[in-house]
Amino acid sequence: MSPEADTAPHQHEITVRLREVDSFGIVWHGHYADWLECARIAYAAAFGFDFATELARGYTTPLIELAVQYRRPARFGDRLLVEIVGVIGYYTLAAQTLNAFGMSKE
């Protein structure tokens, strides 16, 4: 990726689906990792990086560390925003709940 891709902000919005919540109406914790991966792939695609092509060429892009802080539960219909903040050589995915900032459920 180009240096511009390393520093460009990227946002990926997710709406919590019914199948992603448990019997308490709260998102099951394992879905967060899936959403972060979806955001990572969308981020790469925005800069022309295609995972399938690179895998076929023998390159891999392993995730080497994942840490999640659960600050408040996400619920069915919540709109979540995964924001990727670039740092040269690395990138950080930071997730925040849009509902917490006054955005309504759709």
Brief summary:
With 106 residues, the chain is of the alpha+beta class.
Detail the poorly predicted runs. 95-106
Number of DSSP helices? Answer: 3
Main sheet characteristics: 3 strands, antiparallel
Distance between the termini: 35 Å
Beta-strand share of residues: 15-25%
Q: What portion of residues is helical?
A: 25-40%
- The tally of structural domains comes to 1
What is the level-2 CATH architecture name?
Roll
Morphology call: elongated
Q: Helices and strands: which structural class? A: alpha+beta
Q: Within the largest sheet, what's the order of strands?
A: 1-2-3
Quick one: CATH superfamily? Answer: Hotdog Thioesterase
Rounded average pLDDT: 77
Encode the helix/strand succession as letters: HEHHEE
CATH hierarchy class name: Alpha Beta
How would you describe the overall organization of this protein?
- This protein has 106 residues and is of the alpha+beta class.
- The chain has helices spanning 3-7, 30-46, 51-56; strands at 10-15, 79-87, 90-97.
- The protein has a three-stranded antiparallel sheet with strand order 1-2-3.
- The protein starts with a helix and ends in a 9-residue tail after the last strand.
- The chain has a single domain (3-101), classed as Hotdog Thioesterase (Thiol Ester Dehydrase, Chain A).
Task: Describe the structure using short key phrases.
22% strand; alpha+beta; 106 residues; disordered C terminus; three-stranded antiparallel sheet; single chain; Thiol Ester Dehydrase, Chain A
Question: Topology, pairings included?
Answer:
Layout (H helix, E strand, L loop, with lengths): L2 H5 L2 E6 L14 H17 L4 H6 L22 E9 L2 E8 L9
Antiparallel strand pairs: 1-2, 2-3
